[in-house]
C-alpha cells in the first residue's frame, strides 16, 4: 500500500509528458521477455476502497491514468496500488503482480514485472508510436483483480513546459517499522502544462537554489529517488521539503515545493507540572464518519507497569488524548493508539502504534530581559535611555542586549523597535556581525519607522547584542522622540508564545545645529590589491586625498575647548563571502603608526580656543592599509570605522 501511493505521485509526473500521433508499422524494442496472452485486455475490476486506514473492498485503488506522454529516451513510469480486505487475508498471504503490453496493436504480451509499478526505458532513437498497458494482482493464488488500461504516447520531438505543480499522495509518513496501515513512503506527482510537454522533472530535498541547485537525494529525515518516491528514514521526526523542478532546453526554470511531515504516529511528550498535555495520533486522511464498524482507543501503561488499560480519546477528537492536570506521578507514563474493525466475532485490532512516553517537568524559570545603550557617534555622548543634543545628520548607535535569564531555550525570537520615520538605518548587526536582509523587515507604522529583527534561537543563560546604526535626517528644532521596543518568541519546552513589552523606553531629544560641531565622514577606499602582494602598504584613492576632505567639519561651538578626534576600526576587513583580509590600518604623520584592531588612534587635536578644521591628507600622510603575510582571496573587503570627537570640557 505504501509503495503504491508513492508511485502514483510519480506517475502523474509522466502523465503530461508528450502528446504524440500514432505511427503505424512501428515495432518498438523493449528489453523484457514476452509471452503471448490471448485473453488480454481483461475487463477492469471494481476500484478497491481504502477508507479510515481500512480496506473495505479489494482491488486497485490507484489506477493507471488513461494517457501518458513520454519522450523517446525517457522512462515510461506507471504507478498503481492495490489492497485487500482484512476478511480475505489468507494464512500465508502472497501477492503476485503481472503486466501486459500491446505495442501499436501488434498483440498483447505479458512482460516480466512482478511489481505494482511499471518502469520501462524508451530508446532515444525510437520513432513516434503508441503502447497499451494493463496490470493484474493476485492474492493467495486465487483472488485476482485487473486494472484499467493505460495508453502511452511516445514522441521523438521535445515540447517545452510552461507550468509545474507537484502534490504528495501522503502528507504524513510513518518512520518506525512497517505497519500495513501506515505509509512509510509516498510518491510526489507532477502536473505539467502543456499536457503534452516532454520536459523531465528533477527532484531535490531541502532548499532550492535555482540553476545552482545540486540535487540532494538524502538527508537526515528521508530519501527521494529520481522518480519522486520519498521514503522516511527509521525512527525520525520532522518536516522535509521536497522540490520538483524543470530546466528547459532554453534555460528557463520551473519549480514547486511541498512539505511532508515525518514521525512515529504518536510522539513522546514533555509537559509541565500542573498543566495539560495532549497526545495526538497522526496519519493521513483520518475520518470516521460515524462508522460503527471502526473503533478507536488509547492504551495506557503506568510508569513501571506492563499492564495496558484502554482509554477513550477526547470527545471532540478521538485521535487525541489529553491528560490534565499533570502530576509528578504521571512522569514516565506511556500511551499508544489502537484502531479496531468489527467482524462477526466482535472487534479485531487492525493496528497499534508504539508506546510514547510522557515526561513531566517542573515549572520552568522564564525570564527574558533587555538593556539598552545609545551613543551619538558624532559627539561621543552616550546614555542608557535618554540622549540629548542630537542634531541633523548625527549617526546614532543603538545597542539592544537581550538576555535569556531563564532555564528554558527560546525559539523564533523577534525584537521589534521603532525610530523616526525620516531616520536612515545604515547597519544592523548581531554580536558584531552584519545580518542578512532576510533577517529583518522595515515598515512605516504611523509616524514611526518600525524595524522587526528575527534573532532565531537563544539557549538558556545566553545573550545577544543587537546593534543598529541610524542616521538622523530632516530634524525639527527642539524635537523629542520617545519609542518603545518589544520581544516575542516561543518557549522550546511547551511551544507557548510570549510577548515582553515591559522594556526600557528610549527618549531622544533633538536640538538645532547652533553651537555644535557638524561633521561628515567620507567612506575611505584603498588602491586595488593584486594576488601576489604581501607585506606592503596601499594608499587611499584620490577621492580622499587633498584637496578633498576625509572629514568635513563645521565648528559652531561658542566655547571652543580642546578637542581630540580619534578613529577606531570596529570589525575586520571581510568580503562578501565571509573571507577575512590579513590587513590592518596604519597612520602616517609622517612616520607610520600601526593601529591594532579595536584600538583608537588620535589623528587630530586642537588647543583651547582653537577651531577644529576639516581633516585632509596628501597621498603620503593619513590612513593607509598595511597587508600582512597571507595572500588575499578575490573580493571586495569592507570594515567599519568609529570616529570620536572628545571635548576636553
From TrEMBL:
The keyword Signal applies. Residues 1-23 form the signal peptide. Keywords: Signal. This is Cell surface protein. It comes from Companilactobacillus zhachilii.
Amino acid at each position: 500500500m505504501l509503495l503504491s501511493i508513492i508511485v502514483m505521485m510519480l506517475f502523474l509526473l509522466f502523465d503530461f509528458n508528450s502528446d504524440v500521433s500514432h505511427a503505424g508499422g512501428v515495432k518498438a524494442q523493449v528489453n523484457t521477455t514476452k509471452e503471448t496472452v490471448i485473453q488480454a485486455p481483461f475487463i477492469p475490476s471494481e476500484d478497491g476502497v481504502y477508507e479510515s486506514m481500512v480496506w473495505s473492498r479489494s482491488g486497485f485503488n490507484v489506477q493507471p491514468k488513461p494517457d501518458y506522454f513520454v519522450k523517446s529516451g525517457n522512462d515510461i513510469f506507471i504507478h498503481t496500488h492495490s489492497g485487500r480486505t482484512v476478511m480475505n487475508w489468507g494464512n500465508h498471504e502472497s501477492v503476485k503482480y503481472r503486466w501486459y503490453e500491446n505495442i501499436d496493436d501488434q498483440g498483447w504480451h505479458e512482460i516480466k514485472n512482478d511489481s505494482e509499478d511499471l518502469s520501462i526505458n524508451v530508446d532515444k532513437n525510437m520513432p513516434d508510436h503508441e503502447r497499451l498497458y494493463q496490470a493484474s494482482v493476485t492474492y493467495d493464488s486465487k483472488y485476482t483483480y485487473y486494472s484499467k488500461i493505460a495508453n502511452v504516447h511516445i514522441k521523438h520531438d521535445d515540447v517545452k513546459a510552461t507550468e509545474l505543480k507537484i502534490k504528495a499522495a501522503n502528507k504524513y509518513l510513518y518512520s518506525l517499522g512497517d505497519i500495513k496501515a501506515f505509509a512509510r513512503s509516498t510518491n510526489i506527482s507532477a502536473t505539467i502544462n502543456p499536457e503534452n510537454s516532454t520536459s523531465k522533472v528533477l527532484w531535490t530535498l531541502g532548499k532550492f537554489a535555482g540553476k545552482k541547485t545540486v540535487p540532494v537525494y538524502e538527508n537526515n529525515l528521508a530519501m527521494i529517488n529520481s522518480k519522486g518516491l520519498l521514503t522516511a528514514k527509521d525512527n525520525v521526526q520532522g518536516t522535509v521539503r521536497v522540490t520538483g523542478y524543470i530546466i528547459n532546453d532554453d534555460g528557463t526554470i520551473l519549480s514547486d515545493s511541498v512539505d511532508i511531515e515525518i514521525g512515529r504516529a504518536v510522539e513522546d511528550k514533555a509537559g509541565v507540572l500542573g498543566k495539560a498535555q495532549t497526545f495526538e495520533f497522526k496519519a493521513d486522511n483520518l475520518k470516521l464518519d460515524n462508522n460503527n464498524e471502526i473503533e478507536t482507543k488509547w492504551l495506557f501503561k503506568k510508569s513501571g507497569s506492563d499492564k495496558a488499560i484502554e482509554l477513550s480519546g477526547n470527545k471532540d477528537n478521538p485521535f487525541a488524548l489529553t491528560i490534565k492536570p499533570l502530576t509528578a506521578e504521571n512522569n514516565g507514563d506511556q500511551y499508544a493508539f489502537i484502531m479496531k474493525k468489527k467482524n462477526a466475532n466482535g472487534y479485531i485490532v487492525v493496528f497499534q502504534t508504539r508506546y510514547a512516553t510522557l515526561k513531566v517537568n517542573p515549572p520552568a524559570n522564564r525570564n527574558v530581559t533587555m538593556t539598552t545603550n545609545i551613543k551619538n557617534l558624532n559627539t561621543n555622548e552616550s546614555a542608557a535611555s535618554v540622549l540629548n543634543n542630537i542634531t541633523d545628520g548625527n549617526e546614532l548607535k543603538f545597542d539592544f542586549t537581550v538576555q535569556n535569564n531563564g532555564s528554558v531555550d527560546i525559539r523564533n525570537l523577534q525584537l521589534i523597535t521603532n525610530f523616526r520615520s525620516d531616520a536612515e538605518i545604515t547597519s544592523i548587526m548581531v554580536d558584531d556581525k552584519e545580518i542578512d536582509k532576510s533577517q529583518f523587515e522595515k515598515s512605516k507604522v504611523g509616524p514611526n519607522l518600525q524595524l522587526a529583527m528575527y534573532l532565531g534561537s537563544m539557549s538558556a543563560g545566553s545573550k545577544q547584542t543587537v546593534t543598529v546604526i541610524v542616521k538622523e535626517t530632516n530634524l525639527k528644532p527642539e524635537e523629542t522622540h520617545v519609542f518603545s521596543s518589544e520581544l516575542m518568541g516561543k518557549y522550546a519546552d511547551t511551544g507557548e508564545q510570549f510577548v515582553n513589552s515591559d522594556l526600557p523606553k528610549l527618549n531622544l531629544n533633538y536640538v538645532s545645529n547652533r553651537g555644535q560641531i557638524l561633521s561628515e565622514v567620507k567612506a575611505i577606499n584603498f588602491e586595488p590589491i593584486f594576488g601576489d602582494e604581501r607585506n606592503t602598504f596601499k594608499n587611499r584613492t584620490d577621492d580622499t586625498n587633498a584637496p578633498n576632505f576625509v572629514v568635513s567639519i563645521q565648528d559652531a561651538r561658542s566655547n571652543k575647548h580642546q578637542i581630540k578626534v580619534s578613529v577606531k576600526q570596529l570589525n575586520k576587513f571581510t568580503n562578501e563571502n565571509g573571507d577575512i583580509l590579513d590587513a590592518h590600518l596604519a597612520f602616517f604623520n609622517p612616520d607610520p603608526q600601526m593601529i591594532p584592531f579595536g584600538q583608537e588612534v588620535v589623528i587630530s587635536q586642537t588647543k583651547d580656543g582653537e577651531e577644529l578644521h576639516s581633516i585632509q591628507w596628501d597621498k603620503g600622510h593619513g590612513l593607509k592599509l598595511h597587508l600582512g603575510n597571507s595572500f588575499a582571496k578575490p573580493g571586495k573587503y569592507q570594515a567599519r570605522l568609529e570616529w570620536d570627537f572628545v571635548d576636553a570640557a
